[in-house]
Amino acid sequence: MVRFITSLFFIFSLTLFYSVYISPAFFPYIGLITLTIPVLLVINAFLFISLLFSKRWLSILPLIALVLGWKFVGVTFQVPSQNNAISEDGLSVLSYNVALFAFKRDKDTPANPQNVLKWLQDHEADIKCIQEFYQDYSTPSRNAIKILGTESGYEHTYQIIEGNPRNKSYGMAIFSRYPIVNEGRVFDTKRNNGVIFADIKVDKDTIRIYNAHLESMSIQSETLNNLDGIKENYRETLGKLKRGQVTRASQLGILEEHMKNSPYVNILVGDFNDVPYSYTYFTLRKFMENAFESAGSGFGFTYNKVLFFLRIDNIFYEKPLKALRFKTHKEVDYSDHYPISAMFDWQKPLRKKQDPEDQ
Fold first, then answer.
1. Of 200, 88, 86, 178, which Cα lies nearest the Cα of 126?
2. Mind telling me which residue stretches traverse the membrane in this protein (predicted)?
3. Which residues contact 232 (CB under 8 A, 6 or more apart)?
């Protein structure tokens, strides 16, 4: 019986470890199954220790599973680094899904939107990428572009997803202390998701910043606020999770192609609506580094709801950039996401190829 159970978990573990490379477009529920990977790692660790103390050769199977699955430990938890040095020439980047600055909750918490804007205004990041950005030109206290941009000395690009460009709208924004020399959108869904980019001139280099908000689960916040709501609507919730997985796989293909055609070194930040044990995460991980893995600590959870154990916001980057520090700002409790930030070393030339003006 022990041999059967050990062999079963071994085969199941290897299957799941490989499944993160399979697109949900071919197997829609694959992303839901991979959520059990942390549990499998714990089970294999228990089996290995138990069988090792029993001096049974079967201990080799969970050991192999642990070795092959070790990469999932690194994407889950990071030991705090002792190196806290920050380069004077570093570049700081912030990403924050602000949930429309909480304006929908304005009647209950009238000061909250201003608190979000004040925190963003005071945060000393060189580049600030905001998802679910809300702009209201008609109300001075909600004129986020003026407050975070012109009044704070930041250039900006704001790509509208829905609304009136001269009145009220929402979309995605990038604010930069450095000149923005080019900008655009990769795609948008005409709902609340999309990807935009900005080419930013930093000293003699140009870097491309992508601000992403990939397809969400379209699950109402009220459902996720309590476990009873999740249980009562589990069929509908599973369907939305499946559709989200498939849509994100399609969006990822568009984004990946766009980044590969970028003439500059890329930084990709945002709300990916996917956990580290996913096709989205491991596809990006094949050609980009993740700031949490490089310079983070702890679990780095970024979701501010009952499912607090989710890390769905990320900062990816390409070499020769090097992440010196990564932080999840859990002290900032204004949205259903926590802000995340990273500091990058800015010592080496970064251009993939020469700018036309330099040739």
1. 178
2. 29-53, 60-79
3. none
Q: Indicate the pTM of the whole model.
A: 0.90
- Nearest CA to 318 out of 194, 159, 205, 187 is that of 205
User: Cα(238)–Cα(226) distance, rounded to whole angstroms?
Assistant: 16
What per-residue confidence (pLDDT) applies to 262?
97
Q: Distance of CA 306 to CAs 113, 224, 245, 273, Å? A: 22, 6, 21, 15
DSSP class per residue in 238-296: HHHHHHHHHHHHHHHHHHHHHHHT-SSEEEEEEE----SSSHHHHHHHTTSEEHHHHH-
Rounded distance, CA 172 to CA 303, Å?
A: 19
On whether the CB atoms of residues 211 and 5 are closer than 8 A, the answer is: no
pLDDT of residue 56: 85
CA distance 295 to 310: 18
- Are 318 and 265 in contact by the 8 Å Cβ rule? The answer is yes
Angle between helices 37-53 and 2-19 (to 10 degrees): 150
Q: Which two tokens stand for residue 248?
A: 């994100």
278 vs 41: CA distance, rounded Å: 16
Angle ∠(99,101,104) on CA atoms, nearest 5? 80
What sections of 24-69 are H helices per DSSP? 30-33, 37-53, 60-68
Which positions of the chain have pLDDT values less than 70? Answer: 81-89, 104-113, 218-235, 237, 348-359
pLDDT digits 0-9 by tens, 1-58: 889 999 999 999 999 999 999 999 888 878 888 889 999 999 999 999 999 998 789 9
Segment (H or E) for 8: helix 2-19
Structure tokens at 200: 């930013």
Integer Cα distance of 155 and 180 in angstroms: 7
Instruction: Report all structural domains of the chain as residue ranges with CATH numbers, in order of start.
Output: 2-76 (no CATH), 91-352 (3.60.10.10)
Please compute Rg for the chain using Cα positions. Answer: 22
